[in-house]
Design a protein that fits this description.
Elements lengths: L1 E2 L8 E17 L2 H13 L4 H25 L3 E13 L2 E15 L5
Parallel strand pairs: 1-3
Antiparallel strand pairs: 2-4, 3-4
Length: 110
């Protein structure tokens, strides 16, 4: 599956358009990580536990979006975007979405 955040795939031509695909996940914070995060808020610095949590969440949402595109017959997703929102105290959603398409190589003209 080709993934891109631009409107087309360079060197390929769009032969089918399947529409929007999306994937999401909702993740909650871990109590132990909250304690460490409190110290980081006080002293400053990156909260690596949360960074890892968000990275895992983006990957899971992306995989769910890809699975939906495969079911439609797509081999590429263009215009990919991500959104994050708070669902409740301590839990957030990561939402990935894009446009599922089918592309093929551009044949050189003879």
């Amino acid at each position: 599956m080709i993934l891109t955040n631009i409107e087309a795939v360079p060197g390929k031509r769009i032969v089918a358009h399947y529409g929007m695909v999306s994937g999401s996940t909702v993740r909650a914070k871990h109590a132990g990580k909250d304690i460490l995060a409190g110290f980081k808020n006080f002293f400053g610095g990156e909260i690596k536990g949360y960074t890892e949590l968000m990275d895992e969440s983006r990957k899971e949402a992306t995989q769910r979006m890809i699975q939906q595109a495969y079911k439609m017959g797509a081999n590429a997703i263009v215009n990919i975007r991500y959104a994050t929102s708070a669902i409740t105290v301590g839990a957030a959603e990561v939402y990935a979405y894009g446009t599922a398409i089918k592309v093929e190589d551009i044949q050189p003209k003879a």
